[in-house]
Specification:
- It contains two helices and 14 strands; from the N terminus they run E-E-H-E-E-E-E-E-E-E-E-H-E-E-E-E.
- It has 191 residues and is mostly beta strands.
- It has a four-stranded antiparallel β-sheet with strand order 11-10-13-14, with no helix packed on it. Strands 1-5-4 form a three-stranded antiparallel β-sheet, with no helix packed on it.
- Strand 4 and strand 5 form a beta hairpin.
- The chain is globular and about 45 Å long.
- The model has no long low-confidence stretch (mean pLDDT 88).
């Protein structure tokens, strides 16, 4: 509640009911909320439910996605649900475009696991420090094969960045963080 893919949502408390008891594994590492939340949401299992409390204000006419990856598992056998994404919109429609790809380490072409991949609007004034000064508009995290899918994207032009975000603020702002940039992505609706 509200239903998956609900529109005109104005509440920040979400409850998802499953048909069996579940638990969450490494939710803080695996679950990604997009658009990114400045204040970390509270995501937890409670019996047959996953409860989500979003603390940031909701943006108008925006699709929100909660990508659980394999964090939801059944309580008895520990089988992961896998690739489950919940979405809702504060506007009258759900944005359904996706941007996907693979992040490879340029030195050895090995896949990069667990790195954040995000989009900035390409029409914003571009400069080399964009990923240090403007928040990402959509995000996802790579899996063990370096693959990612950013869901809930509006049609338009974006710049994609990969970021090893050590402090969880969605900015490149520490010497220990690693960043890869920038690929221009163009999404169009097919109506």
């Amino acid at each position: 509640s509200p239903d998956n893919k609900a529109t005109n949502v104005d509440r920040r408390k979400i409850s998802i009911l499953f048909n069996e008891y579940i638990k969450m594994e490494n939710a803080s590492e695996k679950v990604v909320v997009s658009p990114p939340q400045i204040e970390m949401p509270n995501i937890r299992a409670a019996g047959k439910r996953v409860k989500i409390d979003l603390y940031d204000s909701l943006q108008t006419n925006t699709t929100y996605t909660v990508d659980f990856s394999d964090a939801i598992v059944d309580n008895n056998e520990g089988n992961p649900l896998g690739k489950y994404t919940y979405s809702f919109s504060t506007g009258s429609e759900i944005d359904t475009m996706e941007v996907s790809g693979t992040v490879l380490n340029a030195e050895n072409l090995e896949p990069v696991k667990g790195i954040l991949v995000g989009l900035h609007h390409a029409d914003s004034t571009y400069h080399d420090s964009l990923f240090q000064t403007a928040p990402l508009v959509r995000v996802a995290r790579t899996n063990g094969s370096g693959q990612f899918t950013i869901k809930g994207v509006k049609p338009g032009q974006y710049r994609a960045f990969a970021l090893q975000d050590m402090d969880g603020n969605y900015f490149f702002n520490q010497k220990s963080e690693v960043v890869a940039f920038d690929t221009v992505v163009h999404t169009t609706s097919q109506r």
